[in-house]
Amino acid sequence: MTDLEKLRNEFAQRLRAEAHLHSASLVGALARVPRERFVGPGPWQIIDLESGSIAYQQTPDDDPKHVYRNVLVALDASRLLNNGHPGSLAGWLDTLDLQPGERVVHLGCGTGYYTAIMAEMVGPHGGVLAVEIDAALADQARKNLRPWSQVEVVAADGSQLDMAERDAIFVNAGATHPAAAWTRSVRRPGGRIILPLTYETSPGMGAGAMLLLTARTDRELSVRMLSPVVIFSCAGSRDVSLDPALRAAFEGGGADGLQTLTLFPTHAADEHCWFHCAQYCLAPRRTQTQDNHRSN
């Protein structure tokens, strides 16, 4: 084992412990994929969230050891554009439980590091569609991901893209609603979406929660809140008219108790809905009494 391979393996094992990762294939992927390939030449501008600061600090040199820490690495510091926080991204990916041979989508792939992680998890017989709306980033991702033949990179608005049938989608930008293209793509029971549901806090940036959605039927998905999130907005999957009500819902609490998302609900909003709009309704699981009350 080379020194760099040892460094990656130690990085993967630290993340396994710190982020409580369960997927052995994810830990293996973290140990194999060269993060320095995706973040450009060093020295690097990094943010160590555990230090309590959100200011960039420059690494003293270009030793790859600096990027094998649980830190954000700037891709374009002027735009606050980073290769994401490994502990957070790995934790979210862990819940997707990607399996060999699955066909998945990474929306907002950036320069492709976490796309490569996903490609390692699904293996050579699986497939990853990597989508990036920024054409320059998509071009860089395409170059970075050449060693992974199971990956296709497209420069497009992922909310409008026909993605055909997929097993899982990882949305890496904040949305006010799940795009119809996404829910159609994973509508078979067991299809999964990682969705950052957010209200906008400033232009292009939002806050809310990372949700794991799992299809039960073509209109109903189970919901599990994974964590709070602050993230760039998904340009094509935002309805500004929903922002005030989403903000009120999050500020009112209860997101951690959500269990059901119903698409295009036919019922009227009532006290059992955590958030309700024409596109979808989010709610805790209803008791039989509540269901009877709704039907009366």
Can you characterise this structure?
The chain has 296 residues and is of the alpha/beta class. It is built from eight helices and 14 strands. It has helices spanning 3-18, 24-32, 86-96, 113-122, 135-144, 180-185, 243-251, 288-295; strands at residues 45-47, 57-58, 72-76, 81-83, 103-107, 127-132, 151-155, 168-171, 192-202, 205-215, 220-232, 260-263, 275-276, 280-283. It has a ten-stranded mixed sheet. Strands 2-1-3-4 form a four-stranded antiparallel sheet, with no helix packed on it. Helix 1 runs antiparallel to helix 2 and helix 2 (24-32) crosses helix 4 (113-122). The chain is globular.
Q: What's this, in brief?
A:
The protein is of the alpha/beta class.
Total of DSSP H or I helical runs spanning 4+ residues: 8
Instruction: Give the averaged pLDDT, no decimals.
Output: 94
Largest sheet: 10 strands, mixed
Morphology: globular
- In sequence order, what are the helices and strands, one letter per element? HHEEEEHEHEHEEHEEEHEEEH
